Amino acid sequence: MIEPFQEPILVTRPFLPPLGEFCEGLEEVWTSGWLTNNGPLHRKFQRELCDRLETDNLCLFSNGTLALQIALQGMQLSGEVITTPFTFVATTHALYWNKLRPVFVDIEPDHYTLDPERVEAAITPWTTAILAVHVYGHPCRLNELADIARRHNLKLIYDAAHAFGVTINGKPIAHYGDLSMFSFHATKLFHTFEGGMIVFRDRGLCKTFDYLKNFGFENETEVVMPGTNAKMNEVQALLGLQMLEYVPEVIERRARVAEVYRAELGDIPGIRLPSPPRDGVSHNYPHFPVEIDEASFGLSRDGLYEKLKHYNVFARRYFYPLVCDFPCYRSLSHCDPLTVARTASERILCLPIYDSLTTEDAERVARIVAEIHVLSSSQEPERGPSLLRAD
Ligand code: T4K
């Protein structure tokens, strides 16, 4: 029997720059006394991101959800928006907060992104936009979606929460579509504790987004629209500036963990590994989703999820249930049977992946999965190690 891990192995762990480096930066914040409201670090972080992403149209936010909500509001969309049910619930909530009706369509089985054929089939006279998700950092079918959006005069918006650092033939993924939202949440490989960013095509929207995230203030005495408060603060910006330097290293270390999983899990019956990135895509390895086929693995996805906990390994079922199955969205009718999304949601388990997970630990996680398969297939009475708890 493989011994359980001494310490819990969680699905992710945030990368953080050396504390000393961060404290030095904090001194700068303390000295300036400027804590938020477009301060010097915010401006510097924004400029740095603009340079790296080769754009001038970029706006920072306190978190990704508000970034997406404000993006949709600023674009003045109405009616129906075609979207995926296989995502974190914030994607759909952002539509709801803008009184937009989500129309859920199915995803493709290879990278779990929106199926362009289903998108086209779902367009009605009320459709105004497509909201697609680069789920697990895999780019959607960019050309097909762009073509559909152009032919039907729809806005094309990407929830790129998972996709920071992804490029296609060297071009940042932020360059695709009318607008992309990135999350800088602690669970993301690039983060600012909490935080978010939008990158957009229409320069004319810059001012609108700035107003919307700052109460609609034009100046001290004028409010030009009913905005909210969604500003990134100086400490977030400081962390972002420091984190930027480490992104290539963090992605590289995650890639190594993914390689270990691929090598070690590939031969286990009933485990389907994630499809490799498409040609030209430089991936960022935000998650490591495997599909479990109960019949050949000998145990369901949920069974494996529970058994892993006995070894102190805490995988996650991203994304289960489908968003359309949450009570707040269940009453929405949709014509698409969502067959692929449903299967993915019932079968996918995201294994732990983060920069500080050693290759030895990743190997051990994989060997545990293999052991669970063997024990489950032989249907021996349960003799698993004692249950440990995550703190
Ligand atoms: N669109 C998509 C497609 C998204 O995936 C997300 C966020 C959004 C939009 C919205 O962006 P934000 O508004 O969040 O910027 C997490 C994150 O909270 C969420 O940001 C993320 N997606 C989602 C996929 O995952 P939970 O509920 O799974 O988080 P939690 O607290 O269970 O954390 C997961 C694991 O991470 C823990 O087991 C331990 C580790 N962890 C977490 C935190 C917060 C740490 O080690 N340190 C930490 O500080 O939602």
Short description:
This protein has about 400 residues and is of the alpha/beta class.
Description of the structure:
With 391 residues, the protein is α/β, with parallel strands linked by helices. 38% of the residues lie in helices and 14% in strands. The two termini are 24 Å apart. The radius of gyration is 22 Å and the shape is globular. The C terminus is likely disordered. It has 14 helices and 15 strands. It has two domains: 220 residues, Type I PLP-dependent aspartate aminotransferase-like (Major domain) (Aspartate Aminotransferase, domain 2), CATH 3.40.640; 131 residues, Aspartate Aminotransferase, domain 1, CATH 3.90.1150. Ligand T4K binds next to helix 3 and helix 4.
CATH superfamily of the largest domain: Type I PLP-dependent aspartate aminotransferase-like (Major domain)
**Structural class, from helix and strand content?**
alpha/beta
- What count of domains describes the coordinates? 2
Terminal residue distance: 24 Å
Strand segment count: 15
Proportion in helices: 25-40%
Q: What's the CATH topology label of the largest domain? A: Aspartate Aminotransferase, domain 2
**What is the CATH level 1 assignment of the largest domain?**
Alpha Beta
Give the cofactors and ligands. Answer: ligand T4K
Shape: globular
Order of helices and strands: EHHEHEHEHEHEEEEEHHHEEEHHEHHEH
Strand content: 5-15%
- The low-confidence parts are 381-391
